[in-house]
Structures are given as structure tokens and as C-alpha cells.
Amino acid sequence: MASAHFVSSISEKSVLEVEKKLSNSGTHGADLRFHGVVRDSEDDRKISGIEYSSYPGMAEKELEKIGQSMAADFQEHTALVHHCIGFVKAGEASILIRVQTRHSSAAYEISREYLRKIKETVPIWKKPIFLHEDPR
Predict the structure, then answer these.
(1) Number of domains in the chain
(2) 3 state DSSP class of 85
(3) 49 by DSSP, 3-state: which?
(4) Which domain holds residue 116?
(5) For position 2, what pLDDT does the model report?
(6) What is the pLDDT at residue 24?
(7) Would 117 be classed as within a structural domain?
(8) What is the pLDDT of residue 135?
(9) What is the pLDDT of residue 25?
(10) I need a labelling partner for 41 at 20 to 30 A (CA). Which of 50, 63, 72, 102 fits?
(11) So what's the pLDDT on residue 134?
């Protein structure tokens, strides 16, 4: 989904793949990139990673709603959100939130709000894969 200020995607592409294609902006003083990284344990048990799944269509619609809401609340920014689905290894990023604004304090505030809304409303589920379990 894309608009003038917001781009989102949910796919098996890694955060690194998506980030390699990003370009810089000469109009923004702040370019904040948040990586949500898979930890190496869940409930005090070691994991190899997390298997992410989503409700196709609905997840994209929820991201679109978030983008529209954020545009109304924080008008002077651009944002990109990418969430991985499929298996993501421990130590790798599962989500990228990029926010560009004129000033850094706004970028941090906006990034936190995107993450909060995504966690609350976007139907993406995670299944930890404990060590010595098959992820599929």
C-alpha cells in the first residue's frame, strides 16, 4: 500500500532487502529506522526464530488505516512500514519502521506511535520455534 506519505508491505522479504532499496531525502532532517529484532528466547526457552503469519488483505487494510490516521495526527512526516511473514531467525529483524521528519524528536514520537498501533490492530501472529523444533 502506498500514498504520498506512507508505504507499507507485508511479505517474506527480509528487512535488509527492503532497506537496501531505500533512498535518502534532502528535505528531512531526521531519518529514523526502527528494527524490531527477534530475541533468542521466549518464555525463558531458547528459540531458533519466529514463524510469522498474517490475515492477508485484512492486515494490509489495517496498515492503510494506520497510515491515514497517522497522516491526520502527524502531518509533517513520511513513513515506511515493512513486516516480515514466514520464518525469521533469532537476531534478525522482523519489522522495519522508517520515519522521516524535519526534527528528530518528532521522528521518535511518530515511530513509537506506529509500532503501538501496529501491535494493537494489525492481524499478524507469531509462533516461536523452540530449538530443535522444525519451523514448518
Answers:
(1) 1
(2) coil
(3) strand
(4) 6-130
(5) 58
(6) 85
(7) yes
(8) 57
(9) 80
(10) 63
(11) 59
Name residues whose C-beta falls within 8 Å of residue 123's C-beta, 6 or more positions apart in sequence: 54, 55, 58, 59, 62
DSSP H helices, 12-133, are 15-20, 58-73, 104-121
Residues 6+ away with beta carbon under 8 Å from 64: 1, 8
Spatial distance between the Cα atoms of 89 and 83, rounded to a whole number of angstroms? 14
In which residue are the cell numbers 497522516 written? 71
The answer as to whether 29 is a domain residue is: yes
In the block, cell 528494527 appears at 35
pLDDT average per 10 residues of sequence, the chain (136 residues): 82 97 88 97 95 95 97 94 98 98 96 98 97 67
Asked if residue 12 is part of any domain, the answer here is: yes
Q: What is the CATH number of the domain that holds 17?
A: 3.90.1170.40
In a domain, 55, yes or no: yes
